Amino acid sequence: MKKLFLVLAMCGLTMSSMAQETTTDPVQKYSVATNSFWSNWFIQAGADWNAFYSNEEHGAGLSRSPFKSFRSAPGLSVAVGKWFTPGLGLRTKFSGVWGRTVIDENKHSNKYWTLNENILFNLSNMIYGYNPTRVWNFIPFVGGGISRNCDYNCYAMNLSAGILNTFRVSNKVAVNFELGWNWAENDFDGVTSGVNNRGWDSHDNKLYAEVGLTFNLGKGTWSKTPDVDAIKALSQSQIDALNAQLNDANAENARLKSLLSVKKEEPAPIVKNYSNTPLSVFFNINKSNIASRKDLVNIQSLADYAKENNSNLVVTGYADSATGAADYNQNLSERRAETVASELVKMGVNRDKISTQGKGGVSDLSPVSYNRRATVKIAE
Predict the structure, then answer these.
(1) What is the pLDDT of residue 216?
(2) Is pLDDT at 275 greater than 70 in this prediction?
(3) Does CATH place domain 38-217 in 3.40.140.10?
(4) Annotation: CATH topology of 279-378
């Protein structure tokens, strides 16, 4: 009965702490997205104070207080685990090193280890919703595993249960306080004889209180699930905006078509005469590529005129006679004419409307560099 009162007192203390959190740390519940396998891992290291209760104690009149020095001893533990959701996780825990087993009036020290697999239930997240900055989390656990008494070379299966409390220090570190119970087979203490009773007294038991640190590995938080309704609303507003733009574009297109039809009905404009003075494009010595693209500005105006009036154009290439042989200059002048003809084609003039010729080397202009040119004019 004393043990039952002790367990109830521990639960009452834990639940009162949780009640205090609900008033000081209200959290709005929301769904979280699933993380990758490599996220939300953690490792733990701690020190405990443990007390053993063997099945041989029943009826022996020995004190059962866990605070008696003859039955308690310090211990160590390490664990590794992973949270699969904010409320559900698994942990593999190794603990042990020192223990004291009470079998008879003589007190027996032993060395042991326990390896357990625990299922963790973070009730703080399950009940009050996930909160990455919550200071305190209440995490009951159950599980089972194997224990070994090294002094007696005995192995025993065991069940485990307890409460893990974590207190957040940062996103990566938490302090943990754990109360637990291991319920092992009755020969774990190396003694197979004794009174076999039901329940608590029929097995070897270990109670422990542990303090340690938890270290989160990799990503330790959970992201909110996207708000599907908000996304749908946003998408619909974007669709409405695009439809409005499309309607405006259709209206503008109809207006332009109307203006174009009116323009076609208007009489054709009177074609003005164009001064047929040849326009020049200059080249560097021994080159057939245009020296300055600025020379094409006036050529563009002439090309537009030719397109509007269906006129033919004549392109004449020149080289300066002061440099190069006559045959070379002839070829160079023809290439310069073709270069300008290609530019006219780029401006929209039909190639069939352009004729080219080369005049070879000349000395008509001064200075001599002015002879390195090609001219464009309306065909007469």
Answers:
(1) 94
(2) no
(3) no
(4) 60s Ribosomal Protein L30; Chain: A; (3.30.1330)
Residue intervals of the chain classified under CATH 2.40.160.20 are: 38-217
Q: Got the DSSP string for 166-221?
A: EEESSSSEEEEEEEEEEEE-TTTTS---S---SGGGGSEEEEEEEEEEEEEES--S
**Does the pLDDT of residue 94 top 60, yes or no?**
yes
Q: Which of 159-168, 226-235, 243-252, 333-342 has the lowest mean pLDDT?
A: 226-235
3-state helix, strand, coil in the chain (%, to 5): 30, 35, 30
- Per-residue buried b or exposed e for 30-46, using 16+ beta carbons within 10 Å of the residue's own CB: eebeebeeebbbbebeb
Q: What is the pLDDT of residue 16?
A: 39
Using the predicted structure, report yes or no on whether residue 132 has a pLDDT greater than 50: yes
The boundaries of every CATH 3.30.1330.60 domain in the chain are 279-378
Instruction: Write down the pTM of the prediction.
Output: 0.51
Dihedral Cα 343, 347, 351, 353, nearest 10 deg: -110
Q: Rounded distance, CA 254 to CA 266, Å?
A: 19
| Residues in a beta bridge with 275 | none
Distances (CA, A) of 327 to 217, 284, 338, 375: 82, 18, 17, 20
Interval 40-84: pLDDT, tens: 999 999 999 888 777 766 655 566 666 677 778 899 999 999 999
Least confident stretch, 222-226, 228-232, 362-366: 228-232
Looking at the chain, how many residues does it have?
380
Kindly give, in sequence order, each residue whose CB lies less than 8 Å from that of residue 113, ignoring residues fewer than 6 positions away.
94, 95, 96, 97, 147, 148, 150
CA 19, CA 348: separation in Å to the nearest integer? 83
Cα 291 to Cα 99: distance, rounded to the nearest angstrom: 97
Measured CA to CA, the distance from residue 236 to residue 2 in angstroms comes to 65
User: What does the block give as tokens for 108?
Assistant: 């027996």
